[in-house]
Structure formats: structure tokens, C-alpha cells
């Protein structure tokens, strides 16, 4: 491993950063994206609307002003002109914004289309994308992307690219066509889908376009930005002008549902069959504030969690998947910040002051009934962003003693002050209060804190927070957490530093923290020169130091990791590292079910990860690690293979094998899963997901049919089963259920 790293470092020494390219004997010099003026586009107002058919043959398109600027590559040759031209026009009428784009292509037969579902696999697809900063605050906005088959990706972006919420869905109409020399996208977005400040005079929005040419692994933009940023880097966007007299509609969406379900099994909190009705309502209270209400909330259509194997002594993080909580999630982000393309060693999977997954789910991840809830998000003035949540769950009395859950109330208040350059400061308060079963004392858990994220330079970001928790039954004396980190990334150099303090009594009852009673020190230094030779795009050798001490300064965990990441021109990658571990256990501890005595443990282990290009019909990822592990050994192999012959069908197979010698015992911990997806078109989908966890000897099956019968209106048929495969089990089916759910959106 070390010899491989030295070899790659030697290659780095002879592969200097690109300052000029030679093509056809002529030198080409890349431009600095920030030296280019931000482009401006003017929308043309029309009467009578547009026929959305993906052809751009309406007369109004010929009158619209097209983009004329040369699009600039972000990758693989930053600063160079895009290899294929893209032309965009924008129209609008009293109800909708229209975007027409022609993506010229010298080889349309090689277009990559990985799927027809909403929020498809954009990294492995040809796409036309655009971002709209509708308040022109250079902070937040909407992101859209279309593939050549007409599938739409939509999302909300926050804090000038720091976070994005892909669960957001808006009403849109999209049609695409493919010609001999291009593919064409025609898109209509009702103004009711967007949030903006209607005025009688003209207004200006932030705007940027992007194009992905997957077979060349090429990304280009209309308003070019440095490599580390995306199309929703609003502080560097262009502008859209010409919008006048936009409608100040009621912005009222009402979405009722009706369902029938049947569920049984000894692991179920509430057995039986029943019918239910519920309601979600969205109201634009002001042009900048949106109120969401939910009653008798149901999330039965949400995909089940992916099983995980825990080979640590800390809690695992499971992400939120429920749409109501994911929309506007970025407003409530108070967490360890991971900044795209900056190597920080930080992740929101390590800490979140508010993690909505704690609402309406039991500790074993079973759904608990939500009675009602409300959420208010948006802006007050130009610089203040606010978010309020109040949710009420119902009491549950399970089939066995001890399986009951109190009704609880959850309240969250969030405020952020946006500063220039994409920076912000904020504060948050979270309260969890039991309101339920008689005979039990009321319990509460509260968390509050302040945070800040600062874009000091385009190459330097700084983040910090401080928070505290209080609860009815304190778990320790020090109830505080604090963190500060700084990360730098230039054209060829990257480094970062992080310090974090977590008290022994810090316990965010509606959040997540991976470990407490520690101080963490993290630092990294690395290089990432562009090579563009022999199929290699970039080489990134690095060295990480990660250490945890107890609150009195004793070393508890230390990892030294030299490694290298190699990015390939076709989109694949190879990474290798060699980790040197130190761990001190202060008491007998269980790791993967094995008991380890208190004491010091040292071990070293290399690992390797290979990922092939994802735009091929057959692609995959293989990871391998072998070495010492505490007082024994560990061999881990994981595989993920994807067969995707066309946009309609995909089959993903995954396997993880862990062979362990630990605590004097030899055992294995394996996971297997298979996922099949079929899309008849962009409205009709069938998904099957089967998982087997050897550690628990359980198989989980989830089959879901989804018909989008109208915009944002669905019919779901869902089958779920959890089955024990252990020997001697008298009731193998632990849980089995069928749900039929119908929703319909009414927009006013």
C-alpha cells in the first residue's frame, strides 16, 4: 500500500496542473471562471401559453432571445469551452414559466438515460439542469434537471450550496425529443410551484444552467463556477430579467389521502386492519412564508430502511425518508457540516441537533401514529430565515406489557441571519415533551444552541456551533457540545482542521450524536492535481489524523490514515488507504456481539475501493479490507452490482461479508440485498427490495407499486414482510402488512 502511494505521488510530481492544452497543434488556455462576467438573460412575456411537446415549434420560441455565451467546462477540463453547444430560451405568461433547451450532440446514440423515476440517478445521466434563485438573495432556491427521456429531478437548495433537499416536489410539465443531432427539452413550471415576491414592476431572479455529457464525463455551465461548486452556487449565478406583473396567487395546495391496510405479527405495535383518511395542506401565508399542516399523518409508502452491520461500539445513523420532514430540511440543519469537494472529516451522520427521524418512530424503527403537525418556513425581510415545527404523536399500548409508548409533543424553532457571500449565523431550540399515558411522570428533553457558517474566501470555509441539552433525567454533568472547523481547497491543495467537544451529559433527545464524553481533533492535508493522461482524471494523495480523548485528556481513539484517491476519466474511481488504529477501552465492551476486556488495543489494516463507470449497462463497486482488529482479525468484502440495460429496468445486487476473530471467537456478519425497479414510463413504477441480515437472521421484503395519476397525486400498493430464518422459531413471520393508499392534490 505504501509503495503504491509513493508511486502515485511520483506520478503527481510529473503531472503538473493543467495550464494549457494542446489540440490539433494549437495551445488552448483555460479561463478562470470568476474572471468572466456573470451572464444575463431576458425572459419574453407571451399570451396564450405553449404546447409542451418537446419540439420548440411554437412561434413564440423564435421570438425569444437565446443564450449566446460560450458554456464553460467545470470538468474534466475546467475553464475550457464545452465540447457540445447548448442553447436555451425562456418565456412566461400569466401562469407559467417556460424553458426550452436544445442540447446539440454529435453522437445522440450514446446518450445515457439511467431511469424514468423522479429524482433519477443524475450523476450517471445526460442532463440539462437549471437553478432559480427566485428571491435573488444569493442563498436559497430551486434546482431542476431533465434527462433525455423526460424524467425530472427537482430539489430545494439552501445556504448557497451547503445543503440540498431532494425530497421537495413541485408541479412541472416536461417533454423531450431526440433528433439526429440533438436532444430537446421543453419545460413548463407554474408560478404556484415556486416561491417568490410578486411585484407590479420588474423583478430579477438568480439563474444558472448546466449540462452533463455523461459519455465524456463532462459538466459545463452557462455561468461558470470553480470545480468545487455546483449549479446552485447562487452567489455566483447569472441573472434572469424581464419578469413583470407575476401572479400573487393564493398558493394553496390541499392533498387528502384515503387508505386501507392490514398488518399482523408478534413484532407489530398495533395489529389489525383499518381504513384511514388524512390531509396535508400547504399555504403560502405571505410571498415568503409557507405553512404546512398535516393531520392523521401516514408514511406507509416510504421505502424501508437499508439494513446495516454495526462493527463499532457506537450508534448507527439511519436517514430520514419521509417527505413531510425532508421538505425544507435545510432550514433546520444544525449539524456537523460536510461541504461538497472540501475534505472536512465531518458529516451530519455524526451529529444533528434536530433529527426528524426521532418523531413518529420507535427506537426499533417501528412507526408510531402521528396525530397532527404544523411547519412554518420561509423569510422575514431580506436576511432572516425562520422555521417552526410542532408535531403531536398518539399514545400506543402494544400487545405485550412494556410495549407501550407515551404520546409526545415535539417543538422546533429555528432562525438564521444570512450574511454576504453565502455566510450565515443562526440559533435553534428543540423541545420533546411526553403528554401521554396516565400513571407515568411527564418527561422532557430540550436542546438549544447557536451556529455559524462562513465563506471567508471561495477557497476557505469555516463552521462553528455551540449547544446544550436539558432533560428531566440528566445523564451526566457536562451538557454541552461545541465544534469549530476550517477547510481550504485551492486548485491543487486541500486541508482542514476540526475540534469538537461533547460533554458526558449532552443528550439531544430529538437529534443524533454518535458518541459523547469526548473531545475530537481532526486534521488532513492532501493534493489533487489534474492528470488527464492514461484514463486518469485526478489523483488525490492525502494524510488524515483523527483523535478522540476523554474529557480529562486521556487518549481514547486515534487513527492515522495515509491514502490516495484516483478519479478516472470515465467516471470510475479507485481509492486505497492504510489505517493505523489505537483504541482504549475503559470497561468491558461489546463489539459486534463479542465481549472485549478493558485495555489498550492497536492494529493496522489496509483497504481498497474500486468503482466502475456508472453509465454502463453493467456497473459496480467492490471494497476490500483485511488486517488486525482489536485483539483479533477482520476480513471485510463488499460488492454492489447494477444491471441497467435501459431506462425502464434495473437490478441491483449487494453483498457484505465480514469474517471476524474477536474476543476469542470466530464468527461472520453478513448482509445480502436485491433491489429491482421497473418503470413503464415517468408515471408508473414497480419496486421490489429484499434484504437478509445474518446477524439477526431476518429477511425483510418490501414491494411497492406507484401510479402517478395526476401531478403530485399517487396511488400506492405496498407489501411489507419481516421474517425470521432462525432455527426453531415457531412464528417465522414477525411482521406482514399490505397497504393501499390514494392521494390527490388540489392546487388553488
Helix content: under 10%
CATH class category name of the domain at 31-244: Mainly Beta
Strand content: over 45%
Task: Give the uncertain stretches in residue-range form.
Answer: 1-27
Q: Helices and strands: which structural class?
A: mainly beta
How would you sum up the global shape?
A: globular
- Head-to-tail CA distance between termini: 62 Å
Most strands sheet: 24 strands, antiparallel, barrel
The overall strand count is 46
Architecture per CATH nomenclature, i.e. the level-2 architecture of the domain at 31-244: Sandwich
CATH topology of the domain at 31-244: Immunoglobulin-like
Mean pLDDT: 88
The count of helical stretches stands at 3
Radius of gyration: 27 Å
Report on the architecture of this protein:
- Among the domains are: 214 residues, Immunoglobulin-like (Sandwich), CATH 2.60.40; 197 residues, no CATH class.
- The N terminus is likely disordered.
- With 748 residues, it is mainly β.
- The radius of gyration is 27 Å and the shape is globular.
- The chain has a 24-stranded antiparallel barrel. Strands 3, 5, 8, 9, 10, 11, 14, 15 and 16 form a nine-stranded mixed beta sheet that branches.
- The protein has three helices and 46 strands.
- The longest helix is centred in the N-terminal third of the chain and has 13 residues.
Amino acid at each position: 500500500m505504501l509503495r503504491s502511494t509513493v508511486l502515485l505521488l511520483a506520478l503527481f510530481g510529473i503531472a503538473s496542473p493543467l495550464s494549457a492544452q494542446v489540440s490539433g497543434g494549437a495551445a488552448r488556455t483555460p479561463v478562470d471562471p470568476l474572471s468572466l462576467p456573470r451572464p444575463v438573460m431576458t425572459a419574453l412575456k407571451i399570451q396564450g401559453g405553449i404546447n409542451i411537446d418537446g419540439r420548440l415549434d411554437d412561434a413564440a420560441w423564435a421570438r425569444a432571445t437565446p443564450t449566446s455565451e460560450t458554456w464553460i467546462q467545470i470538468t474534466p477540463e475546467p475553464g475550457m469551452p464545452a465540447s457540445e453547444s447548448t442553447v436555451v430560451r425562456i418565456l412566461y405568461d400569466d401562469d407559467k414559466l417556460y424553458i426550452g433547451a436544445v442540447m446539440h450532440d454529435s453522437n445522440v446514440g450514446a446518450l445515457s438515460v439511467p431511469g424514468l423515476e423522479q429524482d433519477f440517478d443524475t450523476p450517471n445521466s445526460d442532463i440539462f439542469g437549471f437553478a432559480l434563485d427566485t428571491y435573488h438573495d444569493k442563498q436559497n432556491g430551486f434546482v431542476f434537471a431533465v434527462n433525455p427521456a423526460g424524467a425530472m429531478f427537482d430539489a430545494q437548495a439552501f445556504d448557497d450550496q451547503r445543503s440540498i433537499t431532494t425530497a421537495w416536489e413541485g408541479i412541472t410539465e416536461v417533454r423531450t425529443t431526440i433528433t439526429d443531432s440533438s436532444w430537446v427539452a421543453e419545460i413548463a413550471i407554474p408560478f404556484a410551484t415556486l416561491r417568490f415576491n410578486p411585484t407590479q414592476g420588474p423583478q430579477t431572479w438568480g439563474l444558472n444552467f448546466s449540462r452533463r455529457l455523461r459519455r465524456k464525463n463532462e459538466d459545463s455551465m452557462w455561468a461558470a463556477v470553480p470545480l468545487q461548486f455546483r449549479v446552485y452556487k447562487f452567489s455566483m449565478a447569472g441573472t434572469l430579467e424581464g419578469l413583470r406583473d407575476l401572479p400573487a396567487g393564493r398558493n394553496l395546495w390541499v392533498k387528502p389521502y384515503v387508505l386501507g391496510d392490514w398488518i399482523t405479527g408478534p413484532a407489530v405495535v398495533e395489529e389489525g386492519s383499518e381504513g384511514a383518511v388524512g390531509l396535508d395542506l400547504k399555504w403560502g401565508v405571505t410571498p415568503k412564508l409557507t405553512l404546512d399542516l398535516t393531520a392523521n399523518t401516514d408514511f406507509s409508502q416510504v421505502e424501508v430502511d437499508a439494513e446495516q452491520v454495526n462493527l463499532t461500539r457506537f450508534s448507527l445513523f439511519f436517514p430520514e425518508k419521509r417527505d413531510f420532514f425532508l421538505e425544507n430540511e435545510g432550514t433546520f440543519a444544525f449539524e456537523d457540516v460536510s461541504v461538497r469537494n472540501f475534505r472536512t472529516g465531518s458529516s451530519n451522520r455524526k451529529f444533528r441537533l434536530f433529527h426528524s427521524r426521532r418523531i413518529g418512530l420507535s427506537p426499533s424503527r417501528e412507526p408510531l401514529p402521528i396525530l397532527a403537525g404544523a411547519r412554518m418556513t420561509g423569510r422575514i425581510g431580506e436576511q432572516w430565515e425562520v422555521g417552526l415545527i410542532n408535531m403531536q404523536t398518539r399514545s400506543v399500548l402494544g400487545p405485550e406489557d412494556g410495549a407501550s409508548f407515551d404520546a409526545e409533543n415535539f417543538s422546533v424553532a429555528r432562525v438564521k441571519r444570512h450574511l454576504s457571500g453565502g455566510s450565515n449565523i443562526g440559533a435553534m431550540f428543540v423541545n420533546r415533551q411526553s403528554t401521554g399515558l396516565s400513571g407515568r411522570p411527564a418527561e422532557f428533553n430540550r436542546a438549544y444552541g447557536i451556529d455559524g457558517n462562513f465563506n471567508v474566501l471561495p477557497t476557505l470555509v469555516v463552521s462553528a456551533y455551540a449547544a446544550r441539552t436539558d432533560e428531566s433525567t440528566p445523564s451526566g454533568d457536562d451538557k454541552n457540545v461545541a465544534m469549530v472547523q476550517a477547510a481550504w481547497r485551492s486548485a491543487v491543495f486541500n486541508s482542514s482542521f476540526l475540534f469538537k467537544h461533547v460533554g458526558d451529559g449532552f443528550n439531544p433527545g430529538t437529534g443524533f450524536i454518535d458518541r459523547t464524553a469526548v473531545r475530537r481533533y481532526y486534521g488532513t492535508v492532501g493534493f489533487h492535481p489534474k492528470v488527464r493522461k492514461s484514463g486518469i482524471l485526478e489523483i488525490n494523495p492525502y494524510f488524515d489524523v483523527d483523535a478522540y480523548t476523554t474529557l480529562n485528556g486521556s487518549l481514547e481513539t486515534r487513527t492515522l490514515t495515509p491514502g490516495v484517491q484516483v478519479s478516472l476519466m470515465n467516471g470510475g474511481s479507485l481509492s486505497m488507504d492504510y489505517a493505523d488504529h489505537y483504541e482504549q477501552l475503559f470497561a468491558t465492551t461489546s463489539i459486534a456481539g463479542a465481549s472485549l476486556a478493558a485495555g489498550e488495543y492497536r492494529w493496522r489494516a489496509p483497504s481498497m475501493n474500486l468503482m466502475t463507470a456508472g453509465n454502463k449497462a453493467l456497473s459496480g463497486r467492490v471494497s476490500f479490507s483485511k488486517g488486525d482488529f482489536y485483539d483479533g482479525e477482520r476480513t471485510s468484502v463488499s460488492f454492489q452490482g447494477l444491471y441497467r440495460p435501459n431506462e425502464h429496468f434495473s437490478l441491483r445486487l449487494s453483498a457484505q461479508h465480514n469474517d471476524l476473530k474477536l474476543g476469542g471467537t470466530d464468527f461472520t456478519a453478513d448482509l445480502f440485498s436485491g433491489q429491482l425497479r421497473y418503470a413503464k414510463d415517468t408515471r408508473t413504477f414497480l419496486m421490489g427490495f429484499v434484504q437478509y441480515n445474518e446477524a439477526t437472521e431476518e429477511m425483510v421484503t418490501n414491494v411497492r407499486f406507484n401510479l402517478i395519476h395526476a401531478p403530485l397525486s399517487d396511488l400506492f400498493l405496498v407489501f411489507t414482510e419481516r421474517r425470521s430464518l432462525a432455527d426453531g422459531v415457531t412464528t417465522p413471520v414477525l411482521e406482514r402488512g399490505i397497504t393501499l393508499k390514494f392521494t390527490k392534490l388540489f392546487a388553488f
